[in-house]
Design brief:
about 220 residues, mainly alpha, about 70% helix, about 0% strand
C-alpha cells in the first residue's frame, strides 16, 4: 500500500534534528497500554494494521520542530502503559528539553496532529467513496447489460419454442393428411379401374361379334 506521507502537509520545513530525543524510564506499573490492541484495533480486517502503520508513519513525517505533543505521544507509547506517573515523567522529560512546554501547549499540538489525521482520513474516505461508487456503477452497468441480454435470449427462446410448436402442429396436420391420401383418391381410382375393365370387356365382346360375322361370311357365302 502506498504511503500517506505525501498527503500530510507539514506546518513548516523541519530543520535537521541534532540528536534523537531520549526516552524516559518505563514504569512497571500495570495500566492501559497504547501498544495493546484496543476495541478499535482488534479487528479481523486484514488491512487495518497496515493502514494504522501508514497513519503512524504519516504522523512521524509531520513531526514539528523541537519537543511537542508528538514526542510526548512517542514517550507514552514507548512506556507501554498509561497512568499518572508515566504522564508526569514524560512531562518532566519534555520540560527538561523545552522549558516552554505546558499541558495547554501539548493539548494544542495534539489538536494539530488530530486535524492532520482527519485531513488524510477525509481525503482517503472521499477517494475511496468515489472508487466504490465507480465500482458500483460499473457493476450496475454490467448487471443491466447481462439482464437485458438474458431477457433477449429468453425472448428468442420463447419465439423459437412457439415456432417449434407451430411446426409440430403443421407436421401433425401433414401426417394426418398423409393417412387420408389413399382414401381421398380411392373413388376416382376405382372408377378408372372399372372403366379399364369395362374397356377390356367391351373390346372382347366387339371383337367376338366381328369375328362371329366374319366366320358366318366364310361359312355361308362360299
Amino acid at each position: 500500500m502506498k504511503s500517506l506521507k505525501n498527503l500530510f502537509i507539514k506546518a513548516e520545513e523541519e530543520p535537521e534534528q541534532p540528536e534523537q530525543k531520549p526516552a524516559f524510564p518505563v514504569s512497571g506499573a500495570s495500566s492501559p497500554s497504547l501498544n495493546r490492541p484496543g476495541p478499535s484495533t482488534n479487528s479481523s480486517n486484514p488491512y487495518l494494521g497496515e493502514i494504522i502503520e501508514v497513519y503512524e508513519k504519516g504522523l512521524e513525517s509531520i513531526n514539528m520542530p523541537g519537543y511537542d505533543f508528538y514526542d510526548f505521544y512517542l514517550a507514552i507509547k514507548a512506556a507501554g502503559t498509561q497512568n499518572e506517573s508515566i504522564y508526569k515523567m514524560a512531562f518532566q522529560m519534555g520540560k527538561s528539553m523545552d522549558a516552554s512546554i505546558s499541558p495547554q501547549k501539548l493539548a494544542s499540538d495534539a489538536e494539530f496532529y488530530v486535524s492532520k489525521i482527519n485531513e488524510v482520513y477525509q481525503n482517503y474516505a472521499q477517494k475511496g467513496g468515489q472508487k466504490l461508487q465507480e465500482l458500483e456503477a460499473e457493476q450496475r452497468t454490467e448487471r443491466e447489460n447481462l439482464t437485458n441480454h438474458s431477457k433477449h435470449l429468453e425472448s428468442d427462446i420463447h419465439r423459437l419454442k412457439q415456432e417449434i410448436i407451430s411446426m409440430e402442429q403443421k407436421l401433425a396436420e401433414a401426417r394426418s393428411h398423409l393417412t387420408k391420401v389413399t382414401e381421398k383418391y380411392k373413388p376416382q381410382e376405382d372408377v378408372i379401374k372399372q372403366k379399364l375393365m369395362a374397356n377390356d370387356q367391351a373390346m372382347q365382346v366387339s371383337v367376338q361379334k366381328l369375328n362371329s360375322v366374319k366366320d358366318g361370311i366364310i361359312k355361308h357365302i362360299n
